[in-house]
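Exercise 7. Predict the structure of Glycosyl transferase family 8 from Roseinatronobacter domitianus.
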Amino acid sequence: MATIRNILIVAQDGRLQYEALLFAASLRHFPENRDLRLVVAEPQPGPLWQGDPRISRPAIRRELRALGADIIPLHSKVFGARYPQGNKLEALALLPTGEAFAFFDTDTLITGPIVDVVAGPPTASVRVEPTWPREPLYGPSLAQIWGALYDRFGLEMALTLNTRFGADDWRRYLYFNAGWFTGTCPHQMGERLLHYVAAIERDPPPELATQTLFPWLDQIVLPLAIAAEGGGRRDTGLDGPKSLHYRALPEIYAYASDHAVDILEQVTRAAHLWDIFNQHVAFRRMIFKENGPALRQIIAGTPPPFTYWARRKQIMDAGYWVR
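Solution. The predicted structure, encoded as tokens:
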């Protein structure tokens, strides 16, 4: 079967540019991944940005290119600063039409070869928490909320249900973490996602009256688009041995495998990269001042809390939260 060859991330000024460098360096750390095309979408100044969102560190730009990344301007027409999570949807248009792809958030560490990820039906990360929707006390139900969205776009929700779980269980419904997702044509998926976003934001179904759309909008439309393209839940290894969506560096030291920590430290301590990473407070404190190993000893043997906010609180209580 064909495999994915195009990898997309979005990088800009601030923390994301350092995360993008870590992503690229960990991707190329594995020789098998060196023939993958890495596209870095870089938002450009414009009416949807108050300032300049471009990568500000020349050294990071230089090293990304040395790692084989194609840095391509992204001229935001829909989201920009008002909803940065949505810029990934616009960035899909920068990839070659008709070619399979994988998108990753920059706060992802590649921990193994991903060159063998099959370009099958679209899918996304199932390392997800019950962040949306919130079921109101007096209704509508989860089934009614999701059903209204599927009906709006002429989709068959029944084909997506995980029937191991009951109607009141959020796990029954197709809901993904947008930290990574794959597709067979970036232009087709991007156009579909943007169409769904515009329709929901402009005229949400009545069943969504009590729901908060932001910051969950990208994750609301993702399962709809994946279902529309014949995709669904699929094991790619990207939620396990091949990649780690860490959100904040302390989470790697607190909860990730020894292998993931080893990859992080090998990549960031490379002779030509360490001084760049050392310029960001999270990398400096967790890696180069060795707060990370200290946190790992404190948390060792403690089951990771299920939600991001609970994990963050546990790390904060230990005195090591930084992002």
